[in-house]
Task: inverse folding
């Protein structure tokens, strides 16, 4: 024990001597900051940035040659993801590589490792697809919830004597997201020469909103036959408010069924992952014969069928 203490004291004394020499006796020369040494206006690009840019260009070339893309610019825009498709695909590929490495560390055996790596890597694009779908659905739901206040704002602006395009411009500046984003797009399209009715109709189709499609049709009819558009907005707003109230009641009544479906879907997957991590040998028999792989494939198919069945049972179309 005394020898260990003596050794530790010797190491500490040596470290203290090196710090003394480096800081006091032989201090480092003062350095000018890197930002001050660069010329004004120059942009420093790291090697990692150059490699990333080249990779994104390669992915962009591959995507541009395909007729359809899984993650196109329109889908990412609807999901409020501020990335271009090649950059998003690069992130998905990086996530797939990380998940495949996790599968490599968890599995044992050549066949089991290969299967688990493929399964883990496939979770990345699947998760990205689910993420884009969920964000798109939430964005459209927020647009629907804000539509009542938007119509009230439009009706008030028209009563104040403003033109329809001026009121739409005011909504694009005063409303919350995503209503302001969609109305700003309508304003920009009309400034580029597109008809206002067509721009509003395209917004309704893009947001999958039948209520806003009524608004677009009411504006188109009013431009043809005339009338007091503010009263039309008030009537449509009242109808939408009543529909939203019924929609919320239906959502509340079906919430228990949806939660039960999610629990039943997540329970077998969670138990499988937990046992695979806590007791890897528990499922070893499934990876040594063809019947084990058949049983796993059959389980996945049954899970998929059950998922579709339960989601269809708890989904209420309104």
Result:
């Amino acid at each position: 024990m005394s020898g260990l203490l003596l050794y530790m004291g010797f190491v500490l004394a040596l470290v203290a001597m090196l710090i003394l020499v480096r800081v006091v006796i032989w201090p480092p020369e003062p350095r000018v900051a890197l930002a001050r040494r660069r010329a004004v206006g120059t942009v420093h690009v790291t090697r990692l940035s150059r490699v990333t840019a080249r990779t994104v260009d390669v992915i962009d070339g591959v995507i541009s040659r395909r007729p359809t893309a899984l993650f196109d610019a329109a889908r990412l825009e609807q999901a409020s993801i501020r990335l271009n498709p090649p950059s998003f695909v690069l992130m998905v590929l990086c996530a797939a590589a990380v998940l495949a490495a996790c599968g490599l560390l968890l599995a044992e055996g050549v066949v089991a490792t290969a299967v688990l790596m493929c399964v883990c890597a496939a979770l990345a694009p699947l998760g990205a697809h689910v993420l884009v779908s969920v964000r798109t659905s939430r964005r459209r739901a927020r647009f629907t919830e804000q539509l009542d206040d938007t119509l009230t704002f439009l009706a008030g602006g028209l009563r104040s004597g403003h033109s329809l395009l001026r009121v739409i411009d005011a909504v694009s500046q005063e409303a919350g997201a995503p209503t302001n984003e969609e109305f700003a797009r309508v304003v920009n399209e009309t400034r580029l020469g597109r008809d206002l009715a067509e721009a509003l109709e395209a917004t309704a189709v893009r947001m999958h909103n039948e209520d806003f499609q009524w608004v677009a049709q009411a504006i188109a009819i009013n431009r043809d036959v005339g009338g007091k558009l503010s009263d039309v907005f008030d009537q449509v707003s009242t109808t939408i408010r009543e529909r939203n109230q019924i929609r919320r009641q239906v959502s509340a009544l079906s919430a228990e069924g949806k939660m039960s479906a999610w629990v039943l879907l997540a329970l077998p997957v969670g138990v499988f992952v937990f046992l695979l991590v806590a007791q890897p040998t528990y499922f070893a028999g499934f990876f040594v014969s063809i019947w084990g792989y058949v049983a796993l494939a059959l389980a996945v198919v049954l899970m998929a069928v059950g998922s579709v069945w339960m989601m269809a049972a708890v989904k209420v179309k309104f």
